[in-house]
Amino acid sequence: MSELPRIVSAPSPETLPAEWYWSEDAWQIERREIWAKHWVLIGRAAQFAAAGDYVSTELAGYPVFAIKGKDGVIRAFHNVCRHRASPLVQECAGHVDRISCPYHRWLYDFEGRLKGAPSMEIDKDEYGLFPVRCAVWRGLVFVSIDPAAPIEEWLEDIAKAALRYPIEELQLAREFTIEAEVNWKTYADNYAEAWHIPTIHPGLNASIDMASYRIDTVGDTLQSHTADTRDGGKTDGFWVWRLPGLFFNMYNWGMNVAQLEPMGPRSMRLTYRYFVKDLDPAKREERDALIDWAYMVAREDIDICKAVQKNLETGIYDRGRLSGVHENGVIQFQSMVLKAHRAG
Ligand code: FES
Ligand SMILES: [Fe+2]
What we know:
The protein is of the alpha+beta class. The chain folds into 2 domains: 18-34 and 156-343, Naphthalene 1,2-dioxygenase Alpha Subunit, Chain A, domain 1 (Alpha-Beta Complex); 40-146, Rieske Iron-sulfur Protein (3-layer Sandwich), CATH 2.102.10. 24% of the residues lie in helices and 31% in strands. The protein has helices at residues 24-33, 151-154, 156-161, 184-191, 197-200, 202-207, 284-312, 328-343; strands spanning 40-44, 53-59, 62-68, 74-78, 93-95, 99-100, 107-108, 114-116, 131-137, 140-144, 171-180, 208-218, 222-229, 237-242, 246-251, 254-264, 267-276. Strand 9 and strand 10 form a beta hairpin. The two termini are 12 Å apart. Residues 81, 83-84, 86, 101, 103-106 line the site of FE2/S2 (inorganic) cluster.
């Protein structure tokens, strides 16, 4: 593991070491010291209409799922059977009448209690599912392994920033995921600056007034991006990032909530959820065009991140320097990561 870099208050601090963008050691520190302590958006409360409806994902490298109980409460568990560790639910989202392990049919109830262990005499109370913290905020369902703060506190600054947006009244127009062989920090570094917009996103650049683009940072937790629209531009913007991986992108036409999930030292997944003010069929074309356009911007980011990731792994580059003028957001993000490494 590289020696910790001496940053972070210099005018043009050094970047994090390249090795942190692919090494297993760095990933283990970041899973434990960053991702396990934060909340990750797993789905919408509307996806849990009936008891037995579930959503599964990967959280800080752990497969987990959330499921609605007969009492109406959504609970989350590690997706691992207590017998011999098989995954329990198979799909990203679905419904089960009971949690029945597909391997040897151990059976659990929706509260995670072991109810059946065929051909065994064991104390079932000792073999319930491993719980994961789960919370619902404004119709969105979050999970966390070992949260440093309750969800209300964790989202406090975002809640203030998002107050003027009627999140609950928006309708889901499209949801999709992008997986890429990219370290999660490569993506985050890119998100944390707008300097690349004229070079990487010509369409977005034509839409917003880059002279008005502003990034404000709050401690280790929040980053907000604002920009005015250009005359005839497709979108104005107000983007809030709750570190490490929750992005609320609010536009005049609706909202995109994106969740970044690291899946290992070299892989990540992004889930986008596009919400609009109404799902009027007459406006479908217009709506689709906006979402397709936003998707194109996302792909442009992923493409440059893949190219950067490849170069970070070649061994020729170790640390670069960051601009205090254009990369204040990157400096904030990398400082947070650095602190986590120091703690780990
Ligand atoms: S691993 Fe689940 S029943 Fe055997
Ligand atoms: Fe970008």
